[in-house]
Amino acid sequence: MxxxxxxxxxxxxxxxxxxxxxxxxxxQVQPPQPLPILLQPATDWxxxxxxxxxxxxxxxxxxxxLLSQAAHQRTLDCIRAxxxxxxxxxxxxxxRTTNDx
Length: 101
Ligand SMILES: [Zn+2]
Known about the structure:
Layout: H1 50-63, H2 69-100
The structure holds zinc ion.
C-alpha cells in the first residue's frame, strides 16, 4: 500500500468521492487560508489599561465600518474625559493618603 501523492483526491483525479458532482482535481494543494478576521485570536490585547483598550475598540469599530469618523471622535473624547476625571480623582486620593500618613 502506497501513500497517495495528492492529499486532495488521493490520486483518484476527483475531489469529491461522496457528492453527486465529481470535480476534477488539478492536484494543486492550496496554501492554508488565513482565519477570517473575526475568528482570529486577539493576542495583541494585553498589557493595556481599560482606557487604552476602549480606544482600541473604538478604532476597531471604525475600521470595520461600524462607527462613523464623527462617532469615533466623540467616543474618543468621552473616553479621554472619563480617563482624565479618574486620573484627577486618583491623584487627589493619593495626595490625601500621603498627607495623612
Ligand atoms: Zn488530486
